[in-house]
Amino acid sequence: MFEDFFEEMKKLQLEIDKSFRNFFESENQKYLTYKKDNSQLSLFRNPVVDLEEKDKEIIVRFEIPGVDKKDIELNLNEKNVELKVEKKEESRIEKKGILKEEKNYKRFYKSISLPSEIVVDKTKAKYKDGVLELVMPKKESNKKKIEIE
Questions:
Q1: I want to staple 87 with a disulfide (CB 3.0 to 4.6 A). Which of 24, 37, 71, 73 is the partner?
Q2: What gap in Å lies between CA 87 and CA 47, rounded to an integer?
Q3: Residue 83 belongs to what domain range?
Q4: What are the Cα distances from residue 7, in Å, to 11, 15, 19, 91, 106?
Q5: Does residue 119 lie in a domain region?
Q6: 128: domain CATH number?
Q7: Domain-embedded: residue 77
C-alpha cells in the first residue's frame, strides 16, 4: 500500500520537474534573464527591444510598462547599452478591522551590443507611455573613400 503511494509521489515529482524544464526551455524563456547580482542569481524580465540603424544614428526603443522614470538606470558606452529597472510598490489599507496589504515588484534587465560605435555624450533619452527611446548619433568613421586611377 505505501509502496504505491511513494511510487505515485515519485511520478508526480518527475512530472513537476518536467513542467519546469519545459517552461524554461520554451518560448517563455525569452522574457526572462538571469543576471549575477551580489553573488546571487536574480531573475529579471526581458523588455521588448526595437533597434533601428540609420545613416547617422541608432535608435533603440525599450518597452518597460508600469515603471516611473526614477526607477530606470541606463548605462552606455560606445558599443553597448545596459538597461536596469527595479520598481517596488507597497500599499496598506485598513478598514473596519480588515487589513489589506499588496506588494508589487517589477524588474527588467537588458544589455545589447550596438551595430556601430556611438557618441555617448550626444545621446538623447526620452521616456513616455512605457517606452524608453534612445537616439544615439554614430561616431564619425575615419574611413576615407579613395578613387582608383
A1: 71
A2: 14
A3: 47-137
A4: 6, 13, 19, 45, 40
A5: yes
A6: 2.60.40.790
A7: yes
Number of separate domains in the chain: 1
Indicate whether 53 pLDDT > 60: yes
Dist CA 8 CA 64 (whole Å):
43
Global confidence as pTM: 0.63
Domain contains 110: yes
| Interval 105-126: pLDDT, tens | 778 888 899 999 999 999 999 9
HEC sequence for the chain = CHHHHHHHHHHHHHHHHHHHHHHHHCHHHHHEEEEEECCEEEEEECCEEEEEECCCEEEEEEECCCCCHHHEEEEECCCEEEEEEEEEEEEEEEECCEEEEEEEEEEEEEEEECCCCECHHHCEEEEECCEEEEEEEECCCCCCCCCCC
Q: Tell me the three cell numbers of residue 109.
A: 534587465
13 located within any domain? no
